[in-house]
Design a protein that fits this description.
Helix content of chain A: over 70%
Radius of gyration of chain A: 28 Å
Low-confidence stretches of chain B: none
Strand order of the largest sheet of chain B: 3-2-1-4-6-5-7
Shape of chain B: globular
Strand content of chain B: 5-15%
Low-confidence stretches of chain A: none
Shape of chain A: elongated
Distance between the termini of chain A: 68 Å
Oligomer: heterodimer
Strand content of chain A: under 5%
């Protein structure tokens, strides 16, 4: 059991260091690092406090401390993954709307340019139309 | 407007556009390119269609919705969607448009099963369609013969709705439930389905297995949000 707790301490410390390093290098934004930092801290506290583990295991009705710990780890990471899924869904919706808006604006801009050119030159030659379309 | 969503359809899109123009010469033809990796855009432009070019791949629903949004913004009253792979026969477009104008409904579905059609469906698709017919019947309060048909026409009210709310993946079935949520009406007219002119379907075996799960979930969520349902009332609070 002690070995498991030690491994958990090292793993949670590594997680915290990795998240902080990623934030420092701007690989992850601060607001998205919070859930991982909280998860890392929660695991660190659990790995350092055997009494707390036993209390939680009893509260969960789990006789074996190891299973209790794994359950808590699972719940913590499920929470983090759910938060990330929410973010990804939000981003996908925003990305779709943005892509559609860009495409529509580009389409309308091209139409406007064509119309302006047409009005300026009177009548476009077939060659010009072809060049604009291919461009 | 005739809306043609296309993704890697360089072999078929020009023929589709030309065929549509031959049938409805005065219609605006818009190809919505879902960031194809081949020459779809060039082929569509060569055939004289206007092209709405998406900056990245959105999938069928996102692609169709982009077209609906543009059509709504440009003030079109009717939009008929025709697939870019040539499976839909452009000769059926006038019947869909006529039904839209005549029936005063928000959507018209071109059904391959009316008038004894539908022999071209594979067994897995036929099973899927039968399943969705069963599921949709109590939700829609009526039967629908071809719920997976992408050959549809919509009027301005439906355009307004779909430009704001439209399922992003496998949209046909969910779109029916979205319509029902607003108490919009649809009718079906017979249409012809042919083998695709070129290319292969984007739905592989894995996607074919995932398709019913995704659609069922989408339908379920939409049903929960029906006006008057308990979930809907809680949501509104």
């Amino acid at each position: 059991m002690d070995r498991l707790l030690n491994v958990m301490t090292v793993a949670s410390l590594l997680l915290i260091i990795l998240v902080l390093a990623s934030v420092r290098r701007e690989h992850i934004r601060v607001e998205y690092s919070v859930s991982w930092l909280l998860a890392g801290l929660a695991l660190l506290v659990l790995s350092l406090s055997r009494k707390l583990d036993e209390m939680l295991a009893t509260a969960l009705g789990v006789p074996d401390l190891t299973i209790g710990l794994l359950t808590i780890c699972g719940v913590v990471f499920l929470g983090v993954l759910f938060a990330l899924s929410l973010r990804i869904s939000e981003l996908k919706d925003s990305g779709t709307k943005l892509a559609q808006r860009v495409a529509i604006l580009e389409f309308r801009l091209e139409s406007l340019i064509e119309r302006t050119e047409f009005e300026q030159t009177g009548r476009k030659s077939d060659e010009q139309i072809k060049t604009t379309r291919m461009g | 407007m005739v809306l043609i969503p296309a993704y890697n359809e360089e072999g078929a899109v020009a023929s589709v556009v030309e065929e549509v123009r031959a049938i409805v010469s005065d219609a605006t033809i818009l190809v919505v390119d879902d960031c194809s990796e081949d020459d779809t855009i060039r082929e569509a432009r060569r055939s004289g269609a206007s092209v709405l070019q998406l900056p990245h791949h959105l999938g069928l629903g996102g692609c169709v919705q982009a077209g609906y949004r543009l059509a709504f913004e440009l003030g079109f009253d009717y939009v008929i969607r025709v697939d870019g792979d040539g499976q839909h026969d452009a000769r059926d477009i006038p019947a869909i448009l006529a039904a839209l104008q005549r029936e005063n409904c928000e959507m018209v579905i071109g059904s391959r099963f009316l008038n004894g059609g539908g022999k071209r469906s594979g067994w897995s698709r036929a099973v899927g369609i039968a399943l969705f017919r069963l599921i949709l019947r109590p939700i829609l309060g009526r039967s629908v013969s071809d719920p997976t048909s992408g050959f549809v026409g919509v009027n301005r009210e439906a355009l307004n709705l779909f430009s704001r709310t439209f399922p992003l993946e496998y949209p046909e079935i969910e779109a029916l439930v979205v319509l029902q949520r607003r108490r919009f009406r649809f009718v079906e007219v017979p249409c012809h389905i042919r083998p695709r002119l070129a290319g292969t379907s984007s739905i592989d075996t894995l996607k074919a297995l995932y398709f019913p799960i995704h659609v069922l979930l989408g339908v379920f969520v939409n049903v929960l949000l029906f006006p008057g349902s308990r979930v809907w009332r809680i949501w509104r609070k």
